[in-house]
TrEMBL record:
SUPFAM superfamilies: P-loop containing nucleoside triphosphate hydrolases. This is Type I restriction enzyme endonuclease subunit. Belongs to the HsdR family. PROSITE patterns: HELICASE_ATP_BIND_1. It comes from Cellulomonas fimi. Its EC number is 3.1.21.3.
Amino acid sequence: MSEAPARHFEPIALSSESTVVAEFVADQRAEHGYQSESELEAAFIELLREQAYEHLPITSEAQLVANLRTQLEALNHIAFSDAEWERFFTTTIAGDKDGIVEKTVRIQEDHVQLLKRDDGSTKNITLLDKRHIHNNRLQVVNQYEVTSTGATAAERRENRYDVTVLVNGLPMVHIELKRRGVDLREAFNQIDRYQRDSFWSGSGLFEYVQLFVISNGTLTKYYSNTTRFQHLSETAAARRAKKKTSSSFEFTSWWADASNAPIGDLTGFARTFFAKHTLLNILTRYCVLTADRMLLVMRPYQIVATERILSRIEISTTYKQFGTLAAGGYVWHTTGSGKTLTSFKTAQLASRLGDVDKVLFVVDRKDLDYQTMREYDRFEKGAANSNTSTAVLKRQLEDPGARIIITTIQKLSTFIAKNKGHEVFGGHVVIIFDECHRSQFGDMHTAITKAFKRYHLFGFTGTPIFAANAGSGGNVQLRTTAQAFGEKLHTYTIVDAINDKNVLPFRIDYVNTVRQADTVVDKQVSAIDTAKALLAPQRVRKVVEYIREHFDQKTKRNETYRLADKRVAGFNSIFATASIEAAKIYYNQFGLQQLDLPEAQRLKVALIYSYAANEDEPDGLLDEEEFETDGLDKSSRDFLEDAIQDYNDMFGTSFDTSADKFQNYYKDLSLRLKNREIDLVIVVNMFLTGFDATTLNTLWVDKNLRAHGLIQAYSRTNRILNSVKTYGNIVSFRNLEDETNDAIALFGNKDATGIVLLKPYQEYFDEYADKVAELQQRIPLGQAIVGEDAQKAFIALFGAILRLRNILTSFDDFAGQGILSDRDLQDYQSLYLDLYQSFRRATDAEKESINDDVVFEIELIRQVEINVDYILMLVVRYRAAHGDGEDKEIKATIDRAIDSSPSLRNKKDLIETFVDDLTITDDVAADWRTYIEAKRAAELERIITEEQLKPAATRAFVDTAFRDGAIRATGTAVTTILPPLSRFSQGSNHSERKQIVLQRLTVFFERFVGLV
């Protein structure tokens, strides 16, 4: 009788307590009838009750506060006296000076508060039990009533919040529902209004909300409280210091199962996301409060990856598999999907495991090192100090209190070589490598794995090395990511990310500027692949001419958006060249072609490179360029020195190619790229991996790219910023189509090409043409749009046209093919803006708002809006042509332009009065400045007089607002301009008076901002 084969059982990786369900199978739909919003709400609440949420009939603040007391007493096994509760509630829970930031910090970091008892003793009061999460009690309330605040009765109205989940009595998750068929953005906009108008009213308990959920039954998304609140809670100066905000719908997240299958239907979402252990895990473990005090909530794929790493550590520790591939693994999450946040949370939670001594986060490139160090420092101050020197790394490794350490693979290797037998090598260590597709191949990998004894090795990568794209050199046992790290623990591909809209799709133009011999076809054809032809002066000149000619179009330079509280025009770009020699030649050519241009018309071009062993590697890897410039030949270093001096002249800096100053040049250049202060950076390999700038939308390519190098480089362009940035733009001067398709197939799937790349121009244009034809037929200009149904149809149709135009304008073929004339487009925009204003007035007048059914693409209008400079140009042109006569044409043109611009409509009377008073001999620009300054001073004096404000203080307050770009509504600054008035005297209405003054000054500010 033969022996039965030995069986191998894998330890459980997912359990019933896993935060994200392993696989979600939707119920077969049995309901087919119409479902109202109230019916949707009732069904959702019933689903929560089935999961043991207690449904409370709370509709007022008094009831909410009473329940909070009861819940905190139960959680903490205490009975508050009335005096204790009053003291604790007013000073700790609902302090007068506390806003959403302070309350979020309290939940995320200071969830245990001190109660001073009547007898003088103290007791810890837990607001949220993070150690034993099922001690927390979940309740649900709906139709909670609150009156929104406002300066006038018309602006105050009753609000009813749809559904709120209370955790230990505190509102922590708010759900806004719309009926099926309504745009999901309307729920998002409703929450925005609640946050602005009423969440902070009364005791401000709704400022404790950490997560928002929006749903129309069919689609459901979630996001953190700072996604909409940051722009309301800080001064303009503070906002400008932020690296990134997520104040738009684009930053909401889908929920999914562990295989990345989305769970959009509210029923499935309620049974998974709102499962008690899932919701409590997200609130207590998978939110991250950054050093900037922004709350980030992790996406499902990030949570799955984190839990699988933690599970692998615990299981391999139990089985004593230290130092083997079974103790580690790698996570394949595509570039741009948030690996830094995932790895940070993984490191943080791993450091809290009972017997783990250290967590080392190891990075390879110094440019990536700086990027990661800065990002990590947002999460945990001081963790990145080990990057300064090997000596600091040694101190941190020997410090029991330093649980998380960031270092480079080079410094870790040096430490190992110099400290044989160090006691840290015997400790229980978790080592996490970022961008592990190249950092763990070779001698350094061997040195690290030989030195440490009880370790777990994990890697994160957006572009793994498989057998199909592995190189042929090096250690044959370390050629693939799996060979170096072990099993793949989780996958989130570029296709997943684009489908989820966590990154943007790519649009690729193949533009070749060398014609093959004897060709007579009148189009650009494939470049000749020889070094001599590729760097021929004629070709270089044509490439630079093409970039300059199409730069505004590709980077949307004629379109504006808000970035860190300032309005900027378009995006910026990187130009990837094949070699240092090519980079030098291209930099010179830009200088030559821009030599005689006025300063305002020149592109701000920078150059950066340093020594790399192989500038174009045959296996597709982008060889790292170090910060050391000593390896450069004299000619290349001298050229770089001159280019950096050009940069110094441009920005008033003092960098050069010496070690420290070159590293600081890199940092300064990267910051100016992120802030959209520079137009184009010519690189060889730098900035093509590991560098994130949301303002980048275009990559110009004149180098051979393939596999992971290609995806890494392309992915510099596809970070989400706003609705204006719709895709990453790739303009390739080499025929990389096959390489692109191969890379997408390798790092996505075989069907990925149609998903990752935008559709062809003709498909967008055909859809655009059909919609314009429908617009002209259904709503001809000059005909009133009568009735709400017709107005809604126009808004939806014209909004779709705006979105299509936004994409089409980056196609060369669209030039001159807009169908609608500029004048017709302006007239339709005017109608669109009139409806927008009327709907807003309807909301303010306590009427039932129809905004629930419509979405206005105002941001897309703003990107093409007319500005004051354009109006003044019209004035000059028409005065020169027609003199000072009563010119109806200029007035009609100016009126049409103003009416089509959101920012100029409230300035119309100023512009028209100015135009009426001009004569042909006037200096228009100078007279405009004088006119506006006089008008601004006169209107401000009227406000000061009518509101009895302090003149000098008010003028200073307003000057600060124009300097910072916003009226400061928070803080004590506004109180310094008010007349003496006791806030405690009877009938003083101090708060109301303050709001009236703020409202008048805000209207004044918006009327005059941007005019001079």
